[in-house]
Design a protein that fits this description.
With 303 residues, the chain is an all-alpha fold. It is built from 14 helices and no strands. The chain is globular.
Length: 303
């Protein structure tokens, strides 16, 4: 049993979970959408540079349609997610957005790929999503805004769509090249935000350090690890494993920021961990090891 792809996705998600803590050190004048655009631009260009140096970029049979869909999905994820957080709060926005992504990913695989979700995936997803829901019960007052919840669901759907279409690209390209090209296009789509919101708060040494960390560790390295694992396992499985992100954010909030979790929130942490353990170490079916799905399908259509 090869656990490396699962561990790779988990480590990538853990690195994503450090983003919120890192952003807490930025001045309040820095808009989250500016951070989202900068992380995609920085992470994308770093990985694209690495891919070019290693001669991993080959546009001979590059799946441009899937690349553009993935780039648009990742670009849309930023305003959906940050808009939901602004309207309905960090807790509801984050848990709804990240927690709904595995459900959308499973539905997409079922409807589009005709690949029925496994019982192990279903059990792990139920445990993890229930854990996310309990993390809402942190003792703070919750603000549930219907428009914010809709934006959060849009974030979950676009992240699931990114994961699915990114997997297509990964069957034709190395992870660094795939993420580098997709994120560079996404950053170009988000570039207007650089002119809409002020960037004065990023000119300090602390601001630059935070952006550099987010671009390198929480984006370039994190998505390289996520994509390396995604290349070998179903997209729905990878998206469920990405729920390690809110788990990490909750633990860092307690350990570094000084937040407090009540009994129900700690139960949520336990359920999240249980779901991730089931998905990582549980017995896998033969259907989960079928690869490469898209390359084989495209070649069959050509023949």
């Amino acid at each position: 049993m090869n656990l490396l792809p699962f561990i790779s996705v988990l480590i990538g998600a853990i690195l994503w979970g450090t983003t919120g803590t890192a952003q807490s050190y930025l001045p309040e004048s820095v808009h989250p959408l500016t951070v989202g655009a900068l992380r995609l631009a920085g992470g994308g260009l770093i990985l694209l540079f690495v891919a070019v140096v290693l001669r991993q970029v080959n546009f001979g049979e590059w799946p441009w349609r899937a690349t553009l869909i993935a780039a648009v999905a990742m670009a849309l994820f930023q305003p959906f997610f940050f808009g939901s957080v602004r309207l309905t709060g960090v807790a509801v926005g984050t848990v709804t957005g990240i927690g709904s992504a595995p459900v959308f990913a499973g539905l997409i695989e079922w409807v589009v790929l005709k690949r029925r979700p496994t019982k192990r995936w279903a059990m792990a997803t139920v445990l993890a999503v229930a854990g996310c829901a309990l993390l809402l019960l942190t003792g703070d007052s919750l603000m549930v805004n219907p428009a914010g919840v809709l934006l959060a669901l849009g974030a979950g759907l676009t992240f699931a769509a990114y994961s699915m279409t990114s997997k297509i690209v990964l069957e034709f390209a190395k992870p660094a090249a795939s993420v580098g090209v997709i994120f560079t296009i996404s950053a170009l789509l988000l570039s207007p935000f650089f002119f809409i919101y002020p960037m004065d708060g990023l000119k300090s040494q602390e601001g630059i350090s935070v952006i550099v960390y987010i671009a390198i560790a929480a984006t370039a390295v994190a998505y390289l690890l996520f994509s390396s694992g995604l290349k070998e396992i179903p997209a729905a499985t990878a998206v469920t494993l990405s729920l390690a992100e809110p788990l990490t954010a909750a633990i860092l909030g307690v350990a570094i920021v000084g937040e407090e979790l009540n009994f129900f929130a700690w139960m949520g942490v336990g359920l999240l961990l249980a779901g991730l353990v089931v998905l990582t170490f549980g017995r896998r079916g033969a259907d989960e090891t079928k690869a490469p799905y898209f390359r084989k399908r495209i070649r069959e259509e050509k023949e």
